[in-house]
């Protein structure tokens, strides 16, 4: 027989039921009891905060009924607690790609709108169409308000397809596609037309390949656009994007309503962190002794002034996709744990963030990729503050927004480019292309597959303060005219003589660093 509730419990019970009812939710008897149990020890403000968080989460779920069960309350509370690691007093937060809310650009409203449908791994053809449409719309709306393009008169594929005349100096914004060998088309939201590139076609400074969204100028005759020039849409800063869309809404990650860069409190906090740094490394082979010695040198070198975070990107094994890969990784993480144990006190306030590489095990070949296998967590988690993140992932430090992406994309983009490029220009062309496309992976599905319903996780809209594009290509850092965003590649730590990058968020500055080989001699 249930004991009679105290006056405080009864009052709390009525408050909980009423709050949920206001939002059109009806709690089952057992669910009410669980809420009372969870909230009884907390004060009124804390209860209100947790109740609101739970209701917000419930609203975002596709529920069969407004009747809420005990099990659903328990799971929702668990999610709130996990998301609660991002709190007002914590300056550094890591957002998993699969936790990000999906926002779509609605041209009729002229603003970003939270997507109602829940993303699914088993997407159908309509999801792929929606993802491509959203990519195009984000670039198109930026082109429409770009001051340097105001004098251009854009036309559409539909209008050109209906024309039987020869038209000079036609300008079209479209996505480059290849429907058969040596035959290219450009597509927009109205249709598709064939294009022909000549020997003297001028390509502006970027990488142009299949699925690039670009501006094509040329003469239209005999149903073919003979292209004179191709250019990317100019890059737009995050500040301009928000000003044009009249929004300070948080599209980056987490549950904060206001964008981090728009928060006066966070901007003030960042200004006080002048010497705070974040270290980025890629291709950290934990099974290679020389690489581990280099990593140990790095850790020893920074232990007197440790960074707020160390981001280690895969691949984490020099022998990927082998029968013994997982055993090598297990031993590698155990060895890393032993190294960290010796410096546990020095790095107690440093967040270690592990981002999987393209060849790490138990990871699908599609993007975004989930975190590393859970069985590897056990070695380092008891010693340090560790986050096993997705690829890509997003990092917030105070008012700064950072995107980390580990993929050997540069070589693929160069290989599939239709314009000729020099090695010296690759890094600047790549940076301009990625920022103009506002998407981490603008290549087609057959080259780099993406989960269609999670394409928004690869979006760069608005642009972040820092994009870490961890790639085997040589180390570089680039800034594109029109934005303060830094595009940084720390290079391959294991393959490129132990290069890495150190970022100072308050200064918005990257410092290229390296462990000298001379320090690694036995």
From TrEMBL:
- Any Pfam family matching the protein: DNA_pol_E_B
Q: Give the record's keywords alphabetically.
A: DNA replication, DNA-binding, Nucleus
Major location category of this protein: nucleus
Stretches assigned to the DNA polymerase alpha/delta/epsilon subunit B domain: 278-477
* A Gene Ontology molecular function term of the record: DNA binding
* One GO process term, biological-process aspect: DNA-templated DNA replication
Where is this gene product found?
Answer: Nucleus
CC per GO annotation? epsilon DNA polymerase complex
Keyword Ribonucleoprotein in record: no
Q: Which residues form the DNA polymerase epsilon subunit B N-terminal domain?
A: 8-80
The family database entries (PANTHER family) matched by this protein are listed as: DNA POLYMERASE EPSILON SUBUNIT 2 (PTHR12708:SF0), DNA POLYMERASE EPSILON SUBUNIT B (PTHR12708)
Family label: Belongs to the DNA polymerase epsilon subunit B family.
Q: Its biological function?
A: Accessory component of the DNA polymerase epsilon complex. Participates in DNA repair and in chromosomal DNA replication.
- Name of the protein in question: DNA polymerase epsilon subunit
Q: Which organism is it from?
A: Caenorhabditis briggsae
State the taxonomy lineage: Eukaryota, Metazoa, Ecdysozoa, Nematoda, Chromadorea
